[in-house]
Write a structure and sequence with these properties.
The protein is α/β, with parallel strands linked by helices and 176 residues long. It is built from seven helices and seven strands. It has helices spanning 13-27, 64-72, 74-78, 97-111, 132-142, 150-153, 161-173; strands at residues 3-8, 32-36, 50-56, 82-88, 117-122, 124-125, 156-157. A five-stranded parallel sheet has the order 2-1-3-4-5, with helices on both faces. Strand 4, helix 4 and strand 5 (117-122) form a beta-alpha-beta unit. The longest helix has 15 residues, at 13-27.
């Protein structure tokens, strides 16, 4: 394999992003292996030339199992170029970008791993995926003071697929 993709998803958007990334990698003629870290926490990266990591952010952090994977695989990950796709609703709004960057900084401090390239990826609002508490957190904390009301719009995908495509291709083609 030439590209290894490891991801953790909570509501499904990051899984969708990981599938998109793997299809893009295949379109370049490279081999790809995909790991859902919820299914297994270990991986053989020996055949990987590049690694793409993708995880969503909930309650200010990436999933614990994803961070555990990064910590356990830190030496192998540091031995090859790595790209992180940090998926959050904060990244969907200009005023949320600093907060989205903070999520990555905090993860880097917890895991001891700093990916070579980081892309802050806007996530999605999933209709029917939230209980009352989660709806209130979404509205009052995550989307506070922003020009978006999930109650009026319902499901909405903020993900910028072209930004992911161009960022991925730049990462894969940078052999410096």
């Amino acid at each position: 394999m030439s590209v290894f993709v490891a991801f953790a998803t909570v509501e499904g958007q990051t899984g969708k992003i990981a599938r998109f990334v793997s299809e893009e990698v295949r379109s370049t003629g490279r081999d790809v292996a995909v790991l859902d870290v919820d299914q297994t926490a270990s991986a053989d990266l020996s055949g990987a030339r590049h690694v793409v990591l993708a995880a969503s952010v909930h309650e200010r952090r990436h999933p614990r199992n994803f961070e555990a994977f990064l910590t356990a695989s830190k030496e192998e990950l540091q031995a090859r170029p790595t790209m992180l796709l940090s998926v959050s609703l904060s990244a969907a709004f200009p005023e949320g970008m600093a907060e989205a960057e903070d999520y990555v900084t905090e993860m880097n401090m917890r895991t001891g791993l700093s990916p070579d390239v980081t892309l802050l990826v806007p996530g999605a609002v999933q209709e029917g995926a939230y209980d009352y508490y989660a709806q209130q957190v979404l509205k009052q904390v995550v989307l506070r003071d922003r020009e978006f009301d999930p109650a009026k719009v319902g499901e909405h995908e903020f993900t910028d697929w072209e930004a992911i495509r161009s960022g991925l291709h730049a990462f894969l083609n940078d052999d410096s």
